[in-house]
Amino acid sequence: MKLLEVVGISKKFGNLAALTDVSIHVDANEIVGLIGPNGSGKSTLLHSICGRTIADGGSVLLNGKELVTTNPMVRAKSGMAIKFQLARIYVEKTVRENLMISLQAKDGMWSLIRSGTSKKFMPRIEELIVEFQLVDYADTEAKYLSHGQQQWLEIAMAMASNPSILLLDEPTAGMSPKERADTAKLIKSASAKCGVLIVEHDLDFIKNLCDRITVLHHGSVAASGTPKEIEDDPKVKEVYLTRV
Questions:
Q1: CB neighbourhood size of 118 (10 A)
Q2: Could you tell me which residues come within 8 angstroms of residue 143 by beta carbon, excluding any fewer than 6 positions away?
Q3: If pLDDT is split at 50, 70 and 90, which confidence band does 114 have?
Q4: What is the pLDDT of residue 241?
Q5: What pLDDT shows up at residue 104?
Q6: How many whole angstroms separate alpha carbon 146 and alpha carbon 185?
Q7: CA neighbours closer than 13 Å in the CB half-sphere of residue 1
Q8: Degrees (nearest 5) of the Cα angle 132, 134, 140?
Q9: Distance CA 32, CA 27 (A)
Q10: CA 210, CA 205: separation in Å to the nearest integer?
Q11: Which residues, other chains included, contact 49 with Cβ-Cβ below 8 Å and sequence gap of 6+?
């Protein structure tokens, strides 16, 4: 059984068909890339998967559970986590406090009002701080982190609840080459614990990281295969690789 199975997703905004019969899947511990020119439907598909947008038709199955009409909270509780392009962190809070907030939110509202719950999260927080290279910044307010470190913190917050599937929207945007290389290692490490679906514009980054890549064009799947197959596909080469 596929971990995440998206089948026949369609979405219109007025007369504009943003997605038409789009299917994509992610297996356990697999990293799948999603590429395509601007306006190809990548963001709409990602939002349809995480629940920010409700598709007009099709299925979103996670571990065999149908989620296509559910809200983002239900999808999160079912094992879905997402990191958007712009970091959504609490800049006035420290790294530890950001991770604590994420864990308490996943644990439910009662945890937010119980002073005794924070202690149980400390081992997990320390694990995440080490894994995401934030040891030296654990007690630093997030606003003082570099751009790349802020992105890592948000990925750590997404991973805090041990999701089944991690959705990443252009996680390396604005990063230096060194930060992109470090981010690739972090994503690879995360894939040992969950499946990963990643939208990216940096083709060198994505082809060296992903097991498979799906290409969108005008809201439809134009190609899907291994990075080598996508790179060698004449249509992809002509229409996408110079435009993504």
A1: 15
A2: 91, 92
A3: low
A4: 55
A5: 83
A6: 18
A7: 6
A8: 145
A9: 9
A10: 9
A11: 4, 6, 60, 80, 167, 197
